[in-house]
Amino acid sequence: MTSLENRIPPPLVAALLALCMWLLAGSDPALSSNAIILATAVASVVLVGISFCVSGVISFRRASTTVNPLQPQKASALVTSGVYRISRNPMYVGFTFLLLGWALALGEPLAFIGVPVFVLFITRFQILPEERALTALFGAEFERYCTTVRRWL
To answer: I need a labelling partner for 114 at 20 to 30 A (CA). Which of 11, 67, 123, 138 fits?
Structure first.
């Protein structure tokens, strides 16, 4: 199964899962009697997701390193500042929150299946290969970083 490693852009994985979640829900986003509470919850979760994604990109840009997740071996710097003090993978955390917000908006319990599927797929086919590449590039420095900052949250 290594043929899937670093092959599918994580935003595409998230978008495909969002589509599957919508198909599982079998309807348009839910409107309930607690619409204001639901809308607030969805907006809050989505805002957290966007914040993680944008903060991750900004940190990479400041370090002048690649944001391309399909070529982690081209990283020119190990980013450990900013949001990378909270998570080693803030952009993936952000996508997870976006999918969680989408599941909440759909209001269908089956739609929530997409969230752990994303986490499992990204961990196996994106994060683990990235970690191997970063270990090869940065060695002990990356290994020390891994002991102080969690992979997700």
So the answer is: 67
